[in-house]
Amino acid sequence: MSTEPLAATGVVGAELSAPALAARTSGLRKVYGRTVAVDSVDLEVPQGAVLGLLGPNGSGKTTTIRMLLGLTRPTTGSVELLGVPMPDGADRALPHVGALVEGPGFHPFLSGRENLRRCAAAEPLLPTGGISKAVDDALERVGLAHAATRRFKAYSLGMKQRLGLAAALLVPRRLVVLDEPTNGLDPSGTREIRGVMADLHAAGTTVVVSSHLLAEVEATCTHVAVLHQGTAVAQGELSELLEAGTPTLTVSTEDVQLAVDTLRENRIPFRSAVDGVRVELTGASPQQVVEKLVLAGVGVREARRERTGLEELFARLTEADVREGS
């Protein structure tokens, strides 16, 4: 992230209206020479959502975020941020947006507080008289109050990430965009960032977070967009995407080989599971699966229906090689 606020220049416009979508892209495409980084991405971020932007390395996540924020101009396509066309409307939209993109970059010989005061002084929506309180509140919010006087060059990677997040939260925001915000954080720090995101969501702030930690996304996000090879391959409410996946039945049994033979004989797709098998319910109900196993003499200890997990959904959408039984 550039430590200077994104709207440090330009005139702040009138108060923005509240569009149904906090961000929208249409036909978004970015080409660098012969490399297509983003290709025809149509992205919608509902107001008040916490959207997880997922994708393998090189899938176009950071490039998409940079175009959302007006840091990179699209080759073709359009971007709206808080209802304002970007990048031409950056001076109107960006004062209401906090962002941490591609890691923080601060002055190494200044303290955390001094760096943050420089950022705060350039915030169009922050009066001069409110700078000290805003800085102290932001440091406290990200757990850096104890290290506020330490020079930035002495910060760990996780502390640098926290300071970048503090800069994004100096004033109340309509939208907060975070690119890998838990990079370098220990489990305790990751939980704290999760808490910050939950507070933002509870306050009605829209959050877009790029992350490779699928468990964190599943725990914190309301919506998901998956990018693969520069294209959006899925997006929508997280719960609906998970429910749309193939439902499964996990069967616990000591008679694993007999269960495997029975499922193959009845052409029911399955996978190996811990202490049993995981059956895909594509052509049979849970009752039918259990009945066939029991009639074949399989001792079923437990049968538990499960929905698709985010990790499995992500693997399928990004064409990961998943071995299946037959």
From TrEMBL:
Q: Which UniProt keywords apply?
A: ATP-binding, Nucleotide-binding, Transport
Pfam families assigned to the protein according to its UniProt record, in alphabetical order:
ABC_tran
Q: Which residues form the ABC transporter domain?
A: 23-254
| MF annotations from Gene Ontology | ATP binding
Q: Say which domain of life the source belongs to.
A: Bacteria
Provide the family line.
Answer: Belongs to the ABC transporter superfamily.
Keyword Transport present in the record's keywords: the answer is yes
Would I find Cell division among this entry's keywords? no
Question: Which InterPro entries does this one have?
Answer: AAA+_ATPase, ABC_transporter-like_ATP-bd, ABC_transporter-like_CS, P-loop_NTPase
Record's protein name: ABC transporter ATP-binding protein
